[in-house]
Structures are given as C-alpha cells and as structure tokens.
C-alpha cells in the first residue's frame, strides 16, 4: 500500500497492524464507530530518531509539515480539582493553553501536563501521543484546520510509527469538540 501523504517505505491499514500499536490505540481501532471506515486510517513505520517535526519532514516529505498535527495533554486546575484534556493542532501552530483551553476547561490555571502524567494517563509514549485511544471522558479539543485536511499525520502511541487519519475522522472521536482559535 502507498501512503496517501508523505514518502514512507512501509504503510498499511491500521487495523492490520494492531500488534504495532499501544493497547489503548489498538482497542480504539477494534471498536471503531466513526463514519470513516477504520481501514482508511493508515499506519506508517517511522524511525524514532526522526520523530521531531523538523527532522521528520526532511526525511519523510516536506508536504507533511502542512498535513501533520500535534496532540498534547493539558492540565486545567481550579482549586483542588485537575482536569486533563487533549488538544490537537496543526504542527505549525501552538495551543492557546492560557486562553482558549483554560476557558474551555473552566480552569483558573492551565498548562501542559507533565510528561509522566501524560504518558501514565494515556498509556502512550511521550512524543507519540495520539488522539485515538484517549482515556474515556477526556475532552479532545480539535483545531478546525486539522478537520479540513484530507489526511493528517498524528502519533501512533509510540515514537516509532505514525497514523495517517482523515481529518473528518478526528472530529468524530469520542469527546471531540472542534474549537475555533485553539491553534495560534
């Protein structure tokens, strides 16, 4: 199979590569219910040495800079309560944590979650967190620019692989909410 974007040597429908995915991501694909068939989600093998965006696009295709998104975990706090959420924005943008996200989480203070919290709560590897397979009940805030793309490159749960997901499918994930102004 040829990947719909990028220049990857190995690509396959993600449901055919469940053994290469972390448990929560594989489980999410097994129970997939979106209008976009799970078979349209593509798993591509990548080298973890090239996981950082600038190096990644040099190796796998410059077109990926405009078609990739970062999924980050944010912690919003109000009093003793902490709420975790995931945010998905184009890789060329940054998450408006202290504005849009803080207000959306009804928090007094919001910040990126510590790496050990993000990995411990998601069951995914830092640098590979993906919006597919997030913990039940988490809000997933999605920038509209991501939804509009035919395919979006996101993490796979590991740093050694990526998923190519139709943008529309990302807006249909559990807890997903398309939020204007999320990425700035």
Automatic annotation (TrEMBL):
Pfam hit, one: tRNA_edit
UniProt xrefs under Gene3D superfamilies: YbaK/aminoacyl-tRNA synthetase-associated domain (3.90.960.10)
YbaK/aminoacyl-tRNA synthetase-associated domain residues: 67-171
Superkingdom of the organism of origin: Bacteria
CDD domains on file: PA2301
SUPFAM superfamilies in the record: YbaK/ProRS associated domain (SSF55826)
InterPro entries in the record: YbaK/aa-tRNA-synt-asso_dom_sf, YbaK/aa-tRNA-synth-assoc-dom
The name this protein goes by in its record: YbaK/EbsC family protein
Source organism of the structure: Streptomyces tropicalis
């Amino acid at each position: 199979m040829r990947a719909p974007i990028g220049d990857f040597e190995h690509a396959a429908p993600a449901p055919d590569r469940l053994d290469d995915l972390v448990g929560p991501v594989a489980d999410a694909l097994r129970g997939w219910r979106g209008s976009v068939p799970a078979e349209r989600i593509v798993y591509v093998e990548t080298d973890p040495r090239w996981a950082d965006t600038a190096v990644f696009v040099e190796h796998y295709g410059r077109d990926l800079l405009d078609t990739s998104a970062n999924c980050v975990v944010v912690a919003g706090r109000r009093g003793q309560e902490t709420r975790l959420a995931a945010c998905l924005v184009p890789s060329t943008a940054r998450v408006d944590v202290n504005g849009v996200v803080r207000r959306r989480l009804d928090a007094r203070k919001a910040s990126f979650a510590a790496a050990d919290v993000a990995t411990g709560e998601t069951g995914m590897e830092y640098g590979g967190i993906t919006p597919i397979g997030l913990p039940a009940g988490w809000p997933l805030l999605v920038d509209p620019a991501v939804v509009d793309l035919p395919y979006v490159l996101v993490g796979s749960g590991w740093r050694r692989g990526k998923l190519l997901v139709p943008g529309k499918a990302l807006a249909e994930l559990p807890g997903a909410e398309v939020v204007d102004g999320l990425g700035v």
